[in-house]
Amino acid sequence: MKRFLVLLIVFVCSFQTSQAQIGRLPLSPLQESTIKIGHTAISIAYSRPSKKGREIFGGLVPYDQWWRTGANENTTIEFSEDVMVGGQRLASGKYAIFSKPGRQEWEIVFYEKVDNWNVPEKIDPESIAASVVVKSMKTERALEALSIAFGDFTNYQFDLHIAWDQTQVIVPIGLITAEIMEEKIAQTLNGPVPHDYYSAALYEMESGGNFERGLKWIDTAIEMRENLSWWDLRVKAILMIELNRQKEAEKLAEKALEMAQAENHEYGIREMTRVLKSSRK
């Protein structure tokens, strides 16, 4: 009998130890995502509950009531720079994302207090940094687990996709990339070198910004250069094409192509052939 009790105690202890070693898988695993768009870093952290055969919106998540937009601790989003939400400027920092799902639309708020386990008993209007109302859409495929993801982003904006079951909402968020670039350019050009003027002109060219200003800056870069390069002429030629000065652009493109061929620069030859063709349209 004593031997049986000793064996039983050893078995129970061994079972408990194995459980501790194996651990328990979280029911709503934590998901963390970080991305840098333009000059802005964005991070999201949320717990992903699963459907498990339940009715989600209008059931587990009631309509017209505040929801933490996830499970466990608050879903949070953090921005390294200011952003624009619903026409409101949202200062850089970390926010909880609370939502009020409806049948036709959702209200989304960015809440300054992020240390709640769930939605506060009473939402403090003073803690709402920004809010926006977005359309609720039905998806073709049901998602088993909640998904919050970045989508359709450019250097100037991105969409925040929140989807679960067969419902999705998209929150457009604007970035202040142009404002940041203006500040950087202004600061840099206080004591610039040729490459600074080149970079400023390249930005105007690629962003579809002020082509006249870009042309002025590339001219300054070329004047300051000790050795002219084909890529300087490339930027100037493209800016001239945008300004409908094709004849001048064609001459520059021809010269740049000759320089690239002299260097046997494969990309330069291919690119300047393309620019030359564009100048002759």
Can you characterise this structure?
This protein has 281 residues and is an alpha+beta fold. Helices cover 37% and strands 32% of the residues. It has helices spanning 2-22, 177-188, 194-207, 211-224, 230-242, 246-262, 266-279; strands at 30-37, 40-47, 71-79, 83-85, 88-90, 93-100, 105-111, 128-151, 157-175. A 9-stranded antiparallel β-sheet has the order 1-2-3-6-7-8-9-4-5, with no helix packed on it. A hairpin with a 5-residue loop joins strand 8 and strand 9. It is elongated, with a radius of gyration of 28 Å. 27% of the residues are buried. The model is unreliable at 4-20 (pLDDT under 50).
The proportion of residues in beta strands is: 25-35%
Stretches where pLDDT falls below 50 for ≥5 residues? Answer: 4-20
Number of helices: 7
Overall radius of gyration: 28 Å
Mean pLDDT: 88
Q: Which outline best applies?
A: elongated
Structural class: alpha+beta
Widest sheet, order of strands: 1-2-3-6-7-8-9-4-5
**What is the strand tally?**
9
What labels describe this entry?
alpha+beta, elongated
Briefly summarize what is shown.
The chain is an alpha+beta fold. It contains seven helices and nine strands, in the order αβββββββββαααααα. The protein has a nine-stranded antiparallel sheet with strand order 1-2-3-6-7-8-9-4-5, with no helix packed on it.
